[in-house]
Design goal:
The protein is 30% helix and 23% strand. By secondary structure, it is of the alpha/beta class. It has two domains: 137 residues, Rossmann fold, CATH 3.40.50.720; 196 residues, Dihydrodipicolinate Reductase, domain 2 (2-Layer Sandwich). Helix 8 links the parallel strand 12 and strand 13. It is globular and about 60 Å long. Bound molecules: adenosine-2'-5'-diphosphate.
Length: 349
């Protein structure tokens, strides 16, 4: 007998990929329930060639559900995840709402699957940019220790949701038809609510989410705090600059690290990265081989390359890390958590 799985936010950019990942999962599935707002209720989406009718999310949606994948925003998770847990479901939440709760495991299966066994019904899926950075850096941390991380991200618009993608498409069309770039209509980015909005087309926005403590954005704080939680080490120094770029999908990151061990070479780092599950080394400067966002699309792995020693600090290294933010950064990591829990005997009927 298989599991009954609910997707909350099924019509969204991540929700659609969750459905796709569930189609290929090794998790035995009996039924999939698609949940979204009243706006989408009654519409259909395909799962394994079958049309499934989308239902409106309510507190009663979770009767008989074993696993609920949430990706409909933090407010929805705050309100409905407890109802899902009460109904007996395991919640795997893609929003930031529960990530820093000490009673909620924050998991990248290749890195800290062991944390799953401490769950209380909810498992948090980390921030997309954090997930790929963890996959790239965990083999280095295990082999050589990590004392410092400085990361700059080049994040795709799909991380901001389906409406933000649509807005970028319109901006690109309008710009090509002659609208001056600073007059393009913008209602969504860099963050929602009553804040100012700026066009992303032919632009780069050094703001993802709202500004917070010490003039770092929440997205940047997420990368700092989540890294320490996942790596279970508060002493790692972490700083991030998160930038939205006009790429539809595939996040890229320039990462500077300092290792603890003496005498580590770039080849040592390449070797441990090449051997790590879920990580693909693409690093051949002579042949112009390095990870690219467009090549990561549809892939579950994280890609790393441009690994080179810092010119001044012998313990410092630079690398370039790319992944499909909707897959490893969101939908795949969530489904992979469910698969891992099943393998570990943590998901039971
Ligand atoms: P809907 O399409 O019905 O609005 P994205 O992150 O791509 O913007 O997607 C957000 C997802 O969250 C969509 O599936 C959206 O459904 C869903 N959502 C938004 N508000 C609610 C709500 N109040 N109840 C349930 N689902 C919601």
């Amino acid at each position: 007998m298989g599991f009954n799985v609910a997707v909350v936010g099924a019509t969204g950019a991540v929700g659609g990929k969750m459905i796709e990942m569930l189609e290929g999962t090794t998790l035995p599935i009996d039924n999939v329930k698609l949940l979204a707002s009243a706006r989408s209720a009654g519409k259909t989406l395909e799962f394994k060639g079958e049309e499934l009718v989308i239902e409106e999310l309510t507190e009663d949606s979770f009767t008989g559900i074993d696993v609920a994948l949430f990706s409909a925003g933090g407010g929805i998770s705050a309100k409905f995840a407890p109802a899902a847990v009460k109904a007996g479901a395991i919640v795997i939440d893609n929003t930031s709402h529960f990530r820093m709760d000490p009673n909620t495991p924050l998991v990248v299966p290749e890195v800290n699957a062991h944390a799953l066994k401490g769950h209380n019904g909810i498992i948090a899926n980390p921030n997309c940019s954090t997930i790929q950075m963890m996959v790239a850096l965990e083999p280095i941390r295990r082999a050589f220790g990590l004392s410092r991380i400085i990361v700059s991200t080049y994040q795709a618009v799909s991380g901001a949701g389906a409406q933000a993608m649509e807005e970028l498409k319109i901006q690109l069309k309008d710009a090509i038809h002659g609208t001056p770039l600073n007059e393009l209509e913008a209602n969504i980015l860099p963050c929602g609510g009553d804040k100012k909005h700026y066009p992303l087309a032919f632009n780069a926005l050094a703001q993802i989410d709202v500004f917070a403590e010490d003039d770092y954005t929440y997205e940047e704080w997420k990368m700092v705090n989540e890294t320490k939680k996942i790596m279970e080490d508060d002493s790692i120094k972490v700083a991030a600059t998160c930038v939205r770029v006009p790429v539809f999908s595939g996040h890229s990151e320039s990462i500077y690290i300092e290792v603890e061990k003496d005498g580590v070479t770039a080849d040592d780092i390449k070797r441990v990265c090449a051997d790590f599950p879920g990580l693909v080394l693409e690093d051949d400067p002579a042949n112009q081989i390095y990870p690219q966002a467009i090549n990561s699309l549809g892939r579950k792995e994280t890609f790393v390359g441009r690994i080179r020693r810092d010119l001044d600090d012998p313990k410092g290294f630079h690398l370039w890390c790319v992944s499909d933010n909707l897959l490893k950064g969101a939908a795949w990591n969530s489904v992979q958590i469910a698969e891992q829990m099943y393998q570990d005997g943590l998901l039971k009927k």
